[in-house]
Amino acid sequence: MSNISLNLGGDYLTFSREQPRGPTAPKAAPTTQAKPIGAAPSQPQHSRNHKDRRRTFLKEVCSLPAGNYFFLTLATDKKSNPDLYRQPDRWKAWLKKFGGRFQYRFPTGFYFWKVEMDSDRKGVHFHLIVSTGDDTGREEFHDWATAAWRRVVRSPWDRLTDTRQLTAARIGYFFKQHKHERDAELVASLGRSASFGLVGRKNAALIRPRAYRPTEDQLQRIRALLTQATHEQAQHRFNGRVNQRHLNNIKADFCFHAFLGADLKAQIQNILEEPCRHL
Fold it and tell me: Is the pTM of this model over 0.85?
């Protein structure tokens, strides 16, 4: 057995090297280092933890069970609210009001939300992955969301909302990397506030990951599958340009791979269901 623990979730996989425990574990000697005079201030703790929070958020979205979900976009009227991205308290109050209306109308529902900066950097919009918790249809939900959001932002603009059925492609769009990098300025302006979240958590029955202790052979075969999938995705989506950082992560002691897809997950599951000790 390897000393790598592997977790297979709804549509993601993580593996990491376990640290030795007990009296035999090596202990690092305490060290003290003086801070040089005039040194640049260290990065704020909330900024250093943002990546970890985002990964946890991605795991939760990738753990949605099969069901009826909507991909809702809430826009803002930039003519009436210029430079809204510089006023996080204002749009956070809007989101809170919308969340209250949603929970009143759909008491068994929940949604993931994420704020993004508009392409012209003059406003913000929100993407939501929504489960109403009942059999509400897309058109009915769209009409409700449009009326509710208009009351919240007090705007008659006819392009405030857009509602689609959720697909795997739209989940990927929800986490598109180039938009995440462009929104760095927006994220930095939020301070300790998050740029994403989950409303109605108690109603979100997410798929719990299953833990494994793979053998070295199983681990190498899984890594080969992930590497092959990365190359295939590059051919279809990135004109053959492979994400080298992603490849390096697959070979490292820690790896996080989202959006496995049904076929890749089934192949990994088959490898792990071979003689292997479940944790």
Answer: no
pLDDT at 43: 45
- Between CA 75 and CA 125 the distance in angstroms is 5
What count of Cα atoms within 13 Å lies in the side-chain half-sphere of residue 170? 15
Instruction: Name the more confident of 190 and 123.
Output: 123
Going from N- to C-terminal start, the domains of the chain cover: 52-203, 210-279
Q: Report the pLDDT value the prediction gives residue 117, as an integer from 0 to 100.
A: 79
The DSSP 8-state label assigned to residue 69 in this structure reads: -
CA distance 161 to 275: 51
Q: What CATH number does the domain located at 52-203 have?
A: 3.30.70.100
Lowest-pLDDT range, 21-35, 87-101, 194-208, 243-257?
21-35
Q: Which two tokens stand for residue 156?
A: 């008659």
Q: In what order do the strands lie in the sheet with 196-199?
A: 161-165, 70-74, 124-131, 110-117, 196-199
Rounded to whole angstroms, the Cα distance separating 215 from 249 reads 19
Q: How far apart are CA 215 and CA 223, in angstroms?
A: 12
Tell me the per-residue pLDDT of 22-69, one tens digit each, with 9 for 90 and over: 555 455 445 444 444 444 444 444 445 667 788 888 889 999 998 999
SS3 content of the chain, % helix, strand, coil (to 5): 40, 20, 40
The H or E element spanning position 180 is helix 177-182
Q: CA–CA separation, 210 vs 261, rounded Å?
A: 17
